[in-house]
Automatic annotation (TrEMBL):
The chain crosses the membrane at residues 107-130. It holds the Pfam family DUF1365. Keywords: Membrane, Transmembrane, Transmembrane helix. The keyword Transmembrane helix applies. It comes from Dendrobium catenatum. It comes from the Eukaryota. This is DUF1365 domain-containing protein.
Length: 418
């Protein structure tokens, strides 16, 4: 079987020729892999084809890996001396090609997504303009209103600062909305009841988010503020006004659209990094989170604490309350193209980091499929969940009085990023 010729496969083809020569003398050198099996799986590997599990050339001497990644990680690669170095070389080369092909496909998906969003958002923007003009002609639309206290509007700035391996800093204006999920309708991933269940609270739930605009949603971070009414039956633990007890963060990576939901204590808390949010950051380290209670002002900061790079990155959101929404149409106009601006800035900063030669890091699901389990274990080992109750540092407890682990779930990306 002749190997396929490809500009990306020159290194693999060179290794293939060397391995073919060595395989002809495999029997005389008493190698652990039979000549027939060796030639077969090398041919399949060079052509980036998986080896079937029921392949008839499988032999008891060695278990043939099914993918290039399995080949590189398997212990048998060390057992086939003197050709193990070529096994490693061909495996690494194949992994590099597979990664390159994935990157090219993701770039194609991204361009298609941008084109589709441009067309749909343009059309919906025209419809928004027509609705805005129609409100002056229709008293029904003009009198349309909503509960002012259910939605609060904020305006502020987001700042990012990175110090290693190169310095990069930027900031941009942003607008947010704070929804009372018990009173205002919002297409959030969590209802008020679901958020209360996850956070272990019994009071109101507020969601800080950038609402969808003309059909497009871009929210790197949403925060659910979960309040507690106090424990019934314990007079010293009851209060007249709800108190902020727990928060839930919803973090989304771009452009994949994967999500992670985890709870954290208001004020200050730390979690092990649970999501690949940027191709210019690895999965090592922890997130130090500071979040104030929402009022006339909102402040959130997330810093990365890395074992070798130190505190090399911080992102902050500071915003002031401007007014409350009166109509859904005013909301749509207030947040017009806000998600698009956030997405454009994310991609622009990625281009700048690439131009500055910051190393590109692939998604960990290809190199470490269990990275989520690892993050969850690290989080509960080094960052136990704490609650903010009367400034105490008691471990969060369930109804039986036992300390519990931090709640955290993931949601996979949708097609075509899955």
């Amino acid at each position: 079987m002749a190997p396929k010729t490809s500009g990306l496969g020159k290194k693999i083809l060179a290794s293939y020729d060397r391995l073919k020569d060595i395989s002809e003398t495999a029997e005389s050198r008493h190698l652990l892999i039979p000549k027939k099996s060796w030639t077969y799986y090398v041919d399949r590997l060079v052509n980036l084809e998986p080896i079937p599990a029921d392949n008839p050339v499988n032999s008891p001497e060695i278990s043939i890996p099914k993918t290039a990644q399995d080949l590189y990680q398997t212990e048998e690669a060390e057992a086939v001396n003197p050709i193990s170095e070529f096994v490693s070389e061909i495996a690494l080369s194949t992994l590099a090609i597979e990664g390159r092909q994935r990157s090219e496909m993701e770039a194609f998906y991204l361009l298609c997504s941008i084109a589709s969003t441009f067309v749909s958002s343009t059309a919906l923007s025209f419809l928004l303009a027509i609705r805005s003009f129609s409100r002056f002609l229709s008293p029904i639309l003009a009198n349309e209103c909503c509960d002012r206290a259910a939605v609060r509007l904020y305006q502020g700035r987001v700042r990012h600062s990175r110090t290693k391996p190169v310095f990069n800093s930027f900031e941009y204006p942003v607008r947010y909305a704070l929804f009372d999920l018990d009173r205002a309708q919002h297409d959030s991933h969590f209802s008020a009841d679901r958020a209360r269940e996850a956070a272990g609270t019994d009071g109101p739930v507020f969601l800080l988010t950038i609402p969808t605009s003309v059909g497009y949603d871009q929210n790197p971070l949403k925060v659910y503020y979960c309040y507690d009414l106090g424990e019934e039956g314990e007079e010293e633990e009851r209060w007249s006004l709800p108190r902020l007890k727990n928060c839930i963060a919803e973090v989304t990576n771009t452009p994949w659209g994967e999500k992670v939901f985890f709870e954290f204590a208001p004020g200050s808390d730390m979690v092990a990094k649970p999501l690949h949010v940027s191709p210019f950051m690895d999965m090592i380290g922890n997130w130090k989170i500071h979040a104030s209670e929402p009022g006339d002002n909102i402040f959130i900061s997330i810093s990365v604490q890395h074992p070798t790079l130190g505190n090399y990155f911080i992102a902050t959101l500071s915003a002031k309350r401007v007014h409350s929404s009166t109509t859904s149409l005013n909301m749509e106009k207030y947040f017009w193209l806000m998600p698009h601006k956030v997405a454009a800035l994310i991609y622009w900063q990625a281009v700048k980091l690439w131009w500055k030669n910051v190393p590109f890091i692939g998604h960990p699901k290809y190199s470490n499929p269990s990275y989520r389990d690892d993050a969850s274990s690290r989080c509960n080992e080094i960052c136990p969940l704490r609650i903010n109750r009367r400034q105490s540092n008691k471990l969060n407890q369930n109804s039986n009085g036992e300390s519990r682990t931090r709640w955290c779930i993931w949601r996979d990306a949708e097609w075509p990023w899955a």
